[in-house]
Structures are given as structure tokens and as C-alpha cells.
Amino acid sequence: MVKTGISLDSVKNNNKSQILKILQKNGAMSRKDIANQIGLTPAAVTMLCNDMMEAHMILEKGEMKEQKRAGRKKVLVDINYDFKYIVSVNIEAVDTSITVTNIRGNVLVETKVHTRTDIEPQLFLEELAKEIKLQLWEKELKLSDILGIGICVPGIVDRNNGISIHAYGIWNNQVKIREILEKQIQCPVILENNVKAFAEAEMLYGVGKYGNNIVFIKWGPGVGSAIVVDNKLYEGNQHNAAEIGHYIIEPDGLKCRCGRQGCLETRVSMFALCDRIKEIYSKENTPVLYEETAGDKNLITRELLTSWVENEGNGYITRMDKTISEILVGAIERMARVAVNVLTILAPDCTIVFGSMFENTSIYKLFIQYCTKYDENYTDKLISRSHLSDKMAYIGGTALIASTYFFESKNL
């Protein structure tokens, strides 16, 4: 017998993966329509679908509503999004979100814990593992119900080995997150940079399903970015790529948490904005804020700034002090200038912006105005807000596991 190097099982799994991806992109379809899309016979697709139905990965959704036609009606099939569940963990400088979702990203469990930087990373991760197991126990979920755990952290990540190399603002040293958590919870763990994970979510659940070359920009609390080329996340040398937050805008500027000087983050991150507001804070310079904080500078925190941004409807942006407004407008201009420079080099099909700062409509519109000022082509048609922003705390981790352990052929 001649060895071809490709097994029958491998071919079948590849075809099943294609079917799942088509259903994820288009929704419920008939077996015949699926066959037309992937170039297989209806009989072959029926056999593959029967295998996946037996494994509870897909299910029938009833007959397709069509105009009157002779012959048997088409029966729709769709993904069984409750086939397994996914634990998503988003580690940020202040809080860590733990969320349990189904494969579609519908939430079953959602909680937060304080990100403890006052103890060794391993101890914090062991505490995190206990909290995850508690949440699963309270929902009466067994480990066999869990497809995997997706972990998102800021900074540089070695995804292949599950290591956080430098989680800016959290840990300065390497942390073997996957090894620690898989030891505590006997379950597959995938670790990724938070912005890259969100980009993966956009490709699976959002606008990325229809685009090939995309740039993602996050603003709030820090600044991050990711690049998708030919529907694949780009990763550069030493797991580092598209670090727009560490684009140097002032050669002799402030020291950044990455170790360099004058990075964009030192001027536009929420922490940087709070520091700049504190510098000018006084009864004369910032009367509105001074009254709101009762003269206590210590109340100027990222949480306060976030409340301004999130409560735009209550007039926080429009009634803030002129001096603070000038700081904010300057930050928006800097973000737009750097974004235009990056987009000019990469020339993507589209750009997706997300994060708490961009969620504020006034900030987003002013950002677009500055982008258009520098290049008239960069309008809101080319730079749009993500429709997944309300799921930012968990959708990245969900996508990491769903993509790898459900939709990819090698893991079927």
C-alpha cells in the first residue's frame, strides 16, 4: 500500500471543520446548500452531518421556509452552541474577569476578582483556579462539560508555550500561566495577548468574518493593537507585534511601563490622563472637578475617568473643566495621529476600534475628525467601532477556545 501522508480521518475532520465554519458564518443551512459551498456531494455532507449530530456538535433546526416547490423540503442544520462550555479569564491591572459561556459566547456565569499584584503570580493563579472551580461547581458544571479555558493578559505573550513574558502593569517577569493553571484544573488552557484575542473574536463572531486584512486598535485603560493579514493574526519577532501603545511619540518623554521613554501610552492611557489631571488640579484650574471630589486629589482615579466616559449621557464630557477638556482633546489628537501613520503603512481593508474610550461617542467622533483631517480617506466607513465591545471582558477568551478546540480540524 502506498502511503499518501493524509489519513481518511484527517480528510473527514477537515471537511467537518469546513462545515462548522460555514454554519458559523451563515447560520442554519440545508445539507444540499452546504454541499454546494464546499464542493462535496450531498450524500457525503449528509454522512458528515450525521456523524456530527451523533456527537451532538450540530442539530436539526426544522424545515426551510421556501416558496412552494415539488419534492422533499430542505431540512436545516446548525451548530449546537451548547455542545460544551468555555471558561474565559481576562486579567487586567485592577480586576480579573471570570466568565463561563457557551460556544456562541452567551454568558452563563460572570464574576470579577481583584488582580493581586502584592503576591507571587503563582499564588494569585492558584487562587484564580479555586474561584474558577467554585463558579463551575455552583453552576453544576463538570470538567467534562468544559471545552477549555481561554486566558487573556496585556503585554507580550508566548502563546505556543502559554507564558506571559511581560504583562505590562501586572507582572514584570515571565509567568508560566498555562502550566500553573493546567496543573490546578485538568483542562486545556490557551493564553494570548488581550488585544490579539479580541481580534480573534472579531474574526469568529464579528466583522472579521467578512474581511481579510484588518487592524484593531484598543484604547482604555491602556492602548493596544493587533493586525490580521489574510485572515490570520500576525505575530512578529519575539511574540511582539503591532504594539501601537509603545509607538514612541516623544524621544525624551516620560518613562513607560514597558521600560522605554516617550511611548504613546505615557500620554493617552487612562493612568497617564489621571496623572496629568492631578498635575493641574486646583480650585482655580479645575473648579468642577474640585467640587466633585471635595478637594481630594486622591479621588482622581481610572475609575472616575471611566465613569466620565461611560456616563456621557449625563453630561460628564460636556460639563467638565476646560483645562481637563484640553488634556482629553490632546490625547484624542495624538491617538488619531499615530493611528493614521500606522494605517498609512499597513493599508488594511478596514480598521476596528474598541475599548472604553472609543465607546464614548463624542470621543470616537472627534477621533474620526482628526483622522480625516490628516487623511480625508480615513472616515467612519474605514474606521468603525466594534459591535463586540460590550463583550470585551470575555469574548476574546471564548474565541481562543472555540476556534482551537471546536472549529479547527486537527482537534475534532
From TrEMBL:
Signal peptide: none annotated. Keywords: Carbohydrate metabolism, Xylose metabolism. It holds the Pfam family HTH_24. The keyword tRNA processing does not apply. InterPro entries: ATPase_NBD, ROK, WH-like_DNA-bd_sf, WH_DNA-bd_sf. It comes from the Bacteria. One of its GO terms (biological process) is D-xylose metabolic process. The keyword Zinc does not apply. Transcriptional repressor of xylose-utilizing enzymes. Belongs to the ROK (NagC/XylR) family. This is Putative NAGC-like transcriptional regulator. It comes from Agathobacter rectalis (strain ATCC 33656 / DSM 3377 / JCM 17463 / KCTC 5835 / VPI 0990) (Eubacterium rectale).
